[in-house]
Amino acid sequence: MSIIKEFFGFGGYERPPEGYMSVQHLIFASILTILMFALAIIFAVKYKNRSEAEKNKVIVFSAILIDAIELSRIILICIRISDPWRWLYMLPFFLCSIHFITMPLAAFSKGRVREASLDFTAIFGLLGALMGTYFAGNNFSAYPILSIDNIASGLTHCIAGFFALYVLITGSAKLEKKNIPITISILFGFCIVAYIANIFTDCNYMFLSRGDGTPYDIVFNFTDGNPVLYPLIVVLLFVIYIFAFYFLYYSIRKASKKK
Predict the structure, then answer these.
(1) CA-to-CA distance for 231 and 236, rounded, in angstroms?
(2) pLDDT tens, 163-184?
(3) Measured distance CA(132)–CA(139) in Å, rounded
């Protein structure tokens, strides 16, 4: 019973965190990443030449699974700290947690909404998976590796990464250039809401207030934490990444057609 209590963090963790970029952290992140790539390739190869309805089964399952894990985590934390309103500080206003919305939209909607949702997760899913496993200094500095906090976070990030790889390999995500404005609009919409939420709370949604032990600290230190310049540069980096992703995607497609 004490093992279960310690795993879920009831009463606080007695074990000290192994630390960000510790050997344990790197092994844990690598195992999750290898599983993510392996499963994405296995399922993509299996479903690549099947109908869109068949391909969508994996998309639906991934969307339900990622939201189920995240919802369970939120409920657990609210119970653990005896605060039924804690969920207000765990809203999906981080870049990685936007997938909790875009993945179900990709699974259950149609038309441009589905296309844009597929594209958004395809673009940011893999980046989020790597950032949320290897570079999540905010988590791995605070919690033991084998704890619900790190395992749930690692799983949700890697499910989004799996999703991104799957829809790219199977061709479910078309990444048509006409959808770029929609993708950027989704990003801007969440950034605006996150920025406003940060003003009225002590949250750090989208890491627009500070770096919190992530690579965003580089930008935060560069701008001396300027409350205007820092978030603007962070958002600009998001937009640059979108265009860089599209450039790389179309370059690979063009090169593959020449073979």
Answers:
(1) 8
(2) 999 999 999 999 998 889 999 9
(3) 9
**126 Cβ neighbours under 8 A, 6+ residues apart:** 161, 164, 165
Q: Look up residue 57 and give its two tokens.
A: 């089964």
Note if the pTM is more than 0.85: yes
Q: Cα dist. 44→30, 72, 96, 114 in Å?
A: 21, 28, 22, 19
CA neighbours within 13 Å on the CB side: how many for 143? 19
**Nearest-angstrom CA–CA distance, 107 and 240:** 27
28 pLDDT more than 80:
yes
Nearest to 90 by CA among 67, 65, 68, 73: 73
- Give whole-number Cα distances, 219 to 53, 56, 82, 145, 190, in Å: 43, 38, 35, 27, 20
pLDDT digit string, tens, across residues 95-114:
889 999 999 999 999 988 99
